[in-house]
Design brief:
By secondary structure, this protein is an all-alpha fold. The protein contains 15 helices and two strands. It has a single domain, classed as Farnesyl Diphosphate Synthase.
Amino acid sequence: MNPDVAWPVWSRERAQRVESALEGALPAADESPQSLHAAMRYAALGGGKRVRALLAYASGELGGADAGLVDHAAIAVELIHAYSLVHDDLPCMDDDVLRRGKPTCHVAYGEAVALLAGDALQTLAFEVLAKAPLSQAQAQIAMLAEAAGSHGMAGGQALDLAHVEDALSLNELERMHALKTGALIHAAVRLGAACGRALDQAQSDALDRYAAAVGLGFQIVDDVLDVEGTAHSLGKTAGKDAAQGKATYVSLLGLDAAKIRVAELRDEAHTALLAFGAGARRLNELADWIALRKN
């Protein structure tokens, strides 16, 4: 796509691209077992910000990767994200009934089918990556597995469950969310970049700093919106963290200080990208969007 195209056009085109790619990667709803496949499609299609896919496409542009080469990575991170939301919403986890403006998967399809849908979405993500036309597909599979496993997203969720109503320090909270939210965001950035020209060590380190900043920023904005947003604007239950007694950046820092921290992380993300010049335009725009989003 023309590099001069405006951010709203670029982001909309990429979101539509991954939506279409997900549509093709998922089993048809009328394919047996129908209830499982319908639940998978319900959970993965037709909603969400697609921020992880956008990060993959944007980081791919650093090394001149064609969007077609990034599709597999974008699909995979969105499938992992969708599976995590299905499982997070289950009664044994966060017990939520609203996601992306519609009933959660277990409300719509029952707990057993929702559990299986999450499992199947996760395994499909690795199937998609395994079929990627890239020499580094094996390395990408290992990268995504680490981000999703006990040293990443699943480990962060375990820490979250273990510390409900606990008084966490800011460092403990940051560690938990670096795993629960940040690990998959980091993987999205690195998977996309791996589809283009190889980065040198300084560039690789800079990209890691960027991913860490936007990952933490994304979570703090979530905590702010949980206080300031509504179920209508967010598409999910608002105010639930406070109701459950969970430690958040707002509860530890206060609302104003949390917003200041988001602005600092936005600046850190921009600074990390200086070495990439104009090639990092979309990553810079994503850092702005993550910091300023309202849902």
